Amino acid sequence: MVDDTGVQPLKTLHEATEAIHRRISFEVMSASRARIPMPAEKDLINAAASLQSMLEGLNSGMPHNWQTERLLYRDMIRVAAAGVPLAWVPPADVIRWLLAAGNESSRLKVIEDCSSDILASCHAALKAASGDQISTKRELLEECVFMAEQGMWPGVQALAVNASYSLVHQIFIRDPEWLTAGNAYDFTNVVSDGCHTEFDASISDCFRKAALFLPFARVLDNSEAHRTASMGLNWHSTVIEVNPTQYSKCNALIALMLAVSVLREIHNCGY
Fold first, then answer.
1. Measured between alpha carbons, how far is 145 from 64 in angstroms, rounded to an integer?
2. Distances in whole angstroms, Cα of residue 255 to Cα of each of 50, 126, 169, 175, 189
Protein backbone atom coordinates (compact mmCIF):
# COMPACT_ATOMS: atom_id res chain seq x y z
CA MET A 1 0.00 0.00 0.00
CA VAL A 2 1.60 3.27 -1.21
CA ASP A 3 -0.15 6.65 -1.11
CA ASP A 4 0.16 9.46 -3.64
CA THR A 5 3.08 11.02 -1.73
CA GLY A 6 5.10 7.82 -2.13
CA VAL A 7 4.72 6.91 1.55
CA GLN A 8 3.93 3.34 2.52
CA PRO A 9 1.65 4.21 5.47
CA LEU A 10 1.47 0.82 7.19
CA LYS A 11 5.22 0.27 6.93
CA THR A 12 5.94 3.82 8.09
CA LEU A 13 3.60 3.48 11.07
CA HIS A 14 5.29 0.22 12.06
CA GLU A 15 8.80 1.65 11.78
CA ALA A 16 7.87 4.86 13.56
CA THR A 17 6.21 3.09 16.46
CA GLU A 18 9.15 0.76 16.89
CA ALA A 19 11.58 3.71 16.85
CA ILE A 20 9.54 5.49 19.52
CA HIS A 21 9.49 2.32 21.63
CA ARG A 22 13.27 1.88 21.38
CA ARG A 23 13.90 5.51 22.24
CA ILE A 24 11.75 5.43 25.38
CA SER A 25 13.09 2.05 26.52
CA PHE A 26 16.67 3.33 26.28
CA GLU A 27 15.83 6.48 28.21
CA VAL A 28 13.96 4.69 30.98
CA MET A 29 15.64 1.31 31.32
CA SER A 30 19.28 1.93 30.47
CA ALA A 31 22.06 4.10 31.81
CA SER A 32 23.12 4.54 28.20
CA ARG A 33 22.15 7.78 26.50
CA ALA A 34 22.69 6.50 22.98
CA ARG A 35 20.60 8.53 20.58
CA ILE A 36 17.91 6.44 18.97
CA PRO A 37 16.82 7.92 15.62
CA MET A 38 13.26 9.16 15.73
CA PRO A 39 10.96 8.75 12.74
CA ALA A 40 10.72 11.64 10.32
CA GLU A 41 7.69 13.53 11.59
CA LYS A 42 6.59 14.39 8.05
CA ASP A 43 6.52 10.71 7.04
CA LEU A 44 4.56 9.76 10.14
CA ILE A 45 2.08 12.59 9.53
CA ASN A 46 1.62 11.47 5.90
CA ALA A 47 1.11 7.88 7.02
CA ALA A 48 -1.53 8.95 9.56
CA ALA A 49 -3.32 10.99 6.90
CA SER A 50 -3.34 8.04 4.51
CA LEU A 51 -4.77 5.77 7.21
CA GLN A 52 -7.41 8.27 8.37
CA SER A 53 -10.46 6.51 6.96
CA MET A 54 -9.21 3.09 8.04
CA LEU A 55 -8.55 4.28 11.58
CA GLU A 56 -11.95 5.97 11.79
CA GLY A 57 -13.49 2.58 11.08
CA LEU A 58 -11.70 1.08 14.08
CA ASN A 59 -13.20 3.20 16.83
CA SER A 60 -13.42 0.34 19.30
CA GLY A 61 -9.62 0.16 19.41
CA MET A 62 -9.19 3.87 20.00
CA PRO A 63 -9.12 5.77 23.30
CA HIS A 64 -12.56 6.89 24.46
CA ASN A 65 -11.79 10.57 23.87
CA TRP A 66 -11.18 9.88 20.15
CA GLN A 67 -14.11 7.60 19.38
CA THR A 68 -16.61 8.95 16.80
CA GLU A 69 -14.93 12.38 16.98
CA ARG A 70 -13.47 12.52 13.44
CA LEU A 71 -10.19 13.99 14.66
CA LEU A 72 -7.40 14.65 12.14
CA TYR A 73 -4.80 12.02 12.97
CA ARG A 74 -2.04 13.69 10.95
CA ASP A 75 -2.37 16.80 13.14
CA MET A 76 -2.54 14.69 16.29
CA ILE A 77 0.89 13.22 15.43
CA ARG A 78 2.28 16.76 15.11
CA VAL A 79 0.89 17.83 18.49
CA ALA A 80 1.90 14.61 20.28
CA ALA A 81 5.42 14.98 18.88
CA ALA A 82 5.50 18.45 20.46
CA GLY A 83 5.06 16.81 23.87
CA VAL A 84 1.30 17.10 24.42
CA PRO A 85 -0.57 13.95 25.53
CA LEU A 86 -3.72 13.16 23.54
CA ALA A 87 -4.57 9.51 24.30
CA TRP A 88 -7.41 8.93 26.81
CA VAL A 89 -7.18 12.55 27.97
CA PRO A 90 -7.90 15.45 27.34
CA PRO A 91 -11.49 15.75 26.00
CA ALA A 92 -12.02 15.83 22.24
CA ASP A 93 -12.97 19.54 22.22
CA VAL A 94 -9.68 20.41 23.93
CA ILE A 95 -7.82 18.26 21.38
CA ARG A 96 -9.44 20.23 18.56
CA TRP A 97 -8.27 23.52 20.08
CA LEU A 98 -4.79 22.08 20.52
CA LEU A 99 -4.73 21.00 16.87
CA ALA A 100 -5.74 24.52 15.81
CA ALA A 101 -3.01 26.15 17.91
CA GLY A 102 -0.14 27.31 15.73
CA ASN A 103 2.84 27.11 18.10
CA GLU A 104 4.01 26.01 21.53
CA SER A 105 2.91 29.11 23.39
CA SER A 106 -0.57 28.85 21.83
CA ARG A 107 -0.84 25.19 22.83
CA LEU A 108 0.20 25.98 26.40
CA LYS A 109 -2.42 28.74 26.54
CA VAL A 110 -5.09 26.25 25.42
CA ILE A 111 -4.01 23.87 28.17
CA GLU A 112 -4.11 26.61 30.81
CA ASP A 113 -7.46 27.97 29.63
CA CYS A 114 -8.98 24.48 29.57
CA SER A 115 -7.60 23.32 32.90
CA SER A 116 -11.02 22.56 34.43
CA ASP A 117 -12.03 20.40 31.43
CA ILE A 118 -8.66 18.63 31.52
CA LEU A 119 -8.94 17.90 35.23
CA ALA A 120 -12.48 16.56 34.76
CA SER A 121 -11.28 14.21 32.01
CA CYS A 122 -8.35 13.04 34.16
CA HIS A 123 -10.73 12.35 37.04
CA ALA A 124 -13.04 10.35 34.74
CA ALA A 125 -10.14 8.36 33.24
CA LEU A 126 -8.81 7.51 36.71
CA LYS A 127 -12.26 6.46 37.88
CA ALA A 128 -12.54 4.12 34.86
CA ALA A 129 -9.18 2.44 35.61
CA SER A 130 -8.92 -0.46 38.03
CA GLY A 131 -6.60 -3.30 39.00
CA ASP A 132 -4.25 -4.10 41.86
CA GLN A 133 -1.19 -3.33 39.72
CA ILE A 134 -2.19 0.31 39.36
CA SER A 135 -4.26 0.99 42.48
CA THR A 136 -1.52 2.81 44.42
CA LYS A 137 -0.54 4.99 41.47
CA ARG A 138 -4.18 5.71 40.70
CA GLU A 139 -4.69 6.93 44.27
CA LEU A 140 -1.62 9.18 44.00
CA LEU A 141 -2.88 10.62 40.72
CA GLU A 142 -6.28 11.24 42.29
CA GLU A 143 -4.36 13.24 44.91
CA CYS A 144 -2.77 15.15 42.02
CA VAL A 145 -6.22 16.05 40.70
CA PHE A 146 -7.23 17.22 44.17
CA MET A 147 -4.06 19.32 44.51
CA ALA A 148 -4.66 20.80 41.06
CA GLU A 149 -8.16 21.84 42.07
CA GLN A 150 -6.54 23.69 44.99
CA GLY A 151 -4.00 25.37 42.69
CA MET A 152 -1.01 23.43 44.11
CA TRP A 153 0.66 23.14 40.69
CA PRO A 154 4.32 22.47 41.65
CA GLY A 155 3.23 19.53 43.81
CA VAL A 156 1.07 18.21 40.97
CA GLN A 157 3.94 18.42 38.51
CA ALA A 158 6.55 16.77 40.73
CA LEU A 159 4.30 13.87 41.74
CA ALA A 160 2.80 13.33 38.27
CA VAL A 161 6.21 13.27 36.54
CA ASN A 162 7.45 10.59 38.92
CA ALA A 163 4.20 8.66 38.59
CA SER A 164 4.39 8.67 34.79
CA TYR A 165 8.01 7.48 34.87
CA SER A 166 7.06 4.74 37.34
CA LEU A 167 4.09 3.64 35.22
CA VAL A 168 6.19 3.36 32.04
CA HIS A 169 8.85 1.50 34.00
CA GLN A 170 6.13 -0.86 35.26
CA ILE A 171 5.27 -1.79 31.67
CA PHE A 172 8.90 -2.62 30.94
CA ILE A 173 9.32 -4.69 34.10
CA ARG A 174 6.17 -6.65 33.29
CA ASP A 175 7.35 -7.34 29.74
CA PRO A 176 10.94 -6.10 29.31
CA GLU A 177 11.02 -7.00 25.63
CA TRP A 178 7.88 -5.04 24.78
CA LEU A 179 9.74 -1.95 23.61
CA THR A 180 12.80 -3.53 22.00
CA ALA A 181 13.67 -4.65 18.50
CA GLY A 182 12.48 -8.21 17.84
CA ASN A 183 10.00 -7.88 20.68
CA ALA A 184 7.11 -10.08 21.66
CA TYR A 185 4.71 -7.41 20.44
CA ASP A 186 4.39 -8.54 16.85
CA PHE A 187 3.86 -5.86 14.18
CA THR A 188 4.23 -8.28 11.26
CA ASN A 189 0.60 -8.04 10.22
CA VAL A 190 0.68 -4.26 10.18
CA VAL A 191 3.32 -4.12 7.47
CA SER A 192 1.75 -6.76 5.24
CA ASP A 193 0.44 -5.71 1.82
CA GLY A 194 -3.23 -4.97 1.50
CA CYS A 195 -5.85 -4.67 4.23
CA HIS A 196 -7.86 -7.47 5.68
CA THR A 197 -9.80 -8.02 8.84
CA GLU A 198 -7.31 -10.07 10.84
CA PHE A 199 -4.87 -7.21 11.30
CA ASP A 200 -7.15 -4.19 11.35
CA ALA A 201 -7.00 -4.21 15.15
CA SER A 202 -3.20 -4.21 15.01
CA ILE A 203 -3.25 -1.02 12.94
CA SER A 204 -5.36 0.87 15.47
CA ASP A 205 -3.35 -0.59 18.35
CA CYS A 206 -0.09 0.46 16.70
CA PHE A 207 -1.32 4.00 16.05
CA ARG A 208 -2.73 4.37 19.56
CA LYS A 209 0.59 3.36 21.11
CA ALA A 210 2.51 5.70 18.79
CA ALA A 211 0.31 8.62 19.87
CA LEU A 212 0.50 7.55 23.53
CA PHE A 213 4.29 7.36 23.76
CA LEU A 214 5.30 10.01 21.22
CA PRO A 215 5.09 12.84 23.81
CA PHE A 216 7.61 11.00 25.98
CA ALA A 217 10.28 11.35 23.30
CA ARG A 218 9.97 15.13 23.69
CA VAL A 219 9.50 15.16 27.46
CA LEU A 220 12.56 12.92 27.99
CA ASP A 221 14.78 14.94 25.64
CA ASN A 222 17.88 15.74 27.69
CA SER A 223 19.67 17.86 25.09
CA GLU A 224 20.74 21.26 26.38
CA ALA A 225 19.12 23.04 23.43
CA HIS A 226 15.72 21.55 24.23
CA ARG A 227 15.95 22.03 27.97
CA THR A 228 16.78 25.72 27.66
CA ALA A 229 14.58 26.67 24.69
CA SER A 230 11.32 24.85 25.45
CA MET A 231 8.60 26.18 27.70
CA GLY A 232 6.98 22.75 27.72
CA LEU A 233 7.46 19.94 30.20
CA ASN A 234 10.92 18.38 30.40
CA TRP A 235 11.33 15.43 32.76
CA HIS A 236 15.01 16.09 33.44
CA SER A 237 14.46 19.74 34.29
CA THR A 238 11.48 18.94 36.50
CA VAL A 239 13.39 16.44 38.65
CA ILE A 240 16.71 18.31 38.66
CA GLU A 241 16.13 22.03 38.17
CA VAL A 242 13.58 23.92 40.26
CA ASN A 243 12.80 27.07 38.31
CA PRO A 244 9.69 29.10 37.44
CA THR A 245 10.04 28.41 33.71
CA GLN A 246 9.82 24.66 34.14
CA TYR A 247 7.41 24.55 37.07
CA SER A 248 4.17 25.99 35.76
CA LYS A 249 0.45 25.33 35.68
CA CYS A 250 0.64 24.18 32.04
CA ASN A 251 3.52 21.78 32.62
CA ALA A 252 1.80 20.38 35.70
CA LEU A 253 -1.27 19.64 33.58
CA ILE A 254 0.87 18.03 30.86
CA ALA A 255 2.61 15.87 33.48
CA LEU A 256 -0.75 14.81 34.92
CA MET A 257 -2.15 13.98 31.47
CA LEU A 258 0.95 11.91 30.67
CA ALA A 259 0.61 9.87 33.84
CA VAL A 260 -3.15 9.41 33.50
CA SER A 261 -2.89 8.39 29.84
CA VAL A 262 -0.32 5.69 30.59
CA LEU A 263 -2.25 4.41 33.60
CA ARG A 264 -5.42 4.23 31.50
CA GLU A 265 -3.52 2.38 28.77
CA ILE A 266 -2.25 -0.14 31.33
CA HIS A 267 -5.82 -0.72 32.44
CA ASN A 268 -7.05 -0.99 28.84
CA CYS A 269 -4.41 -3.53 27.80
CA GLY A 270 -4.27 -5.47 31.07
CA TYR A 271 -0.53 -5.07 31.62
1. 20
2. 31, 15, 16, 24, 33
User: With helix as H, strand as E and coil as C, how does the chain read?
Assistant: CCCCCCCCHHHHHHHHHHHHHHHHHHHHHCCCCCCCCCCCHHHHHHHHHHCHHHHHCCHHHCCCCCCCCCCCHHHHHHHHHCCCCCCCCCCHHHHHHHHHCCCHHHHHHHHHHCHHHHHHHHHHHHHHCCCCCCHHHHHHHHHHHHHHHCCCHHHHHHHHHHHHHHHHHHHHHHCCCCCCCCCCCCCHHHHCCCCCHHHHHHHHHHHHHHHHHHHHHHHCCCCHHHHHHCCCCCHHHHHHCCCCCCCCHHHHHHHHHHHHHHHHHHHHHCC
- pLDDT at res. 185: 32
> Residue 263 in contact with residue 142, Cβ under 8 Å?
no
Q: How many CA atoms lie within 13 A of 154 on its CB side?
A: 9
Question: For 205-232, what is each residue's pLDDT tens digit?
Answer: 778 887 888 888 788 877 766 666 667 8
Dist CA 269 CA 81 (whole Å): 23
* CB contact set of 55 (below 8 Å; sequence gap of 6+): 48, 62, 73, 203, 204, 207
Q: Do 52 and 74 contact (CB within 8 A), yes or no? A: yes
- Interval 10-26: pLDDT, tens: 677 767 666 666 666 66
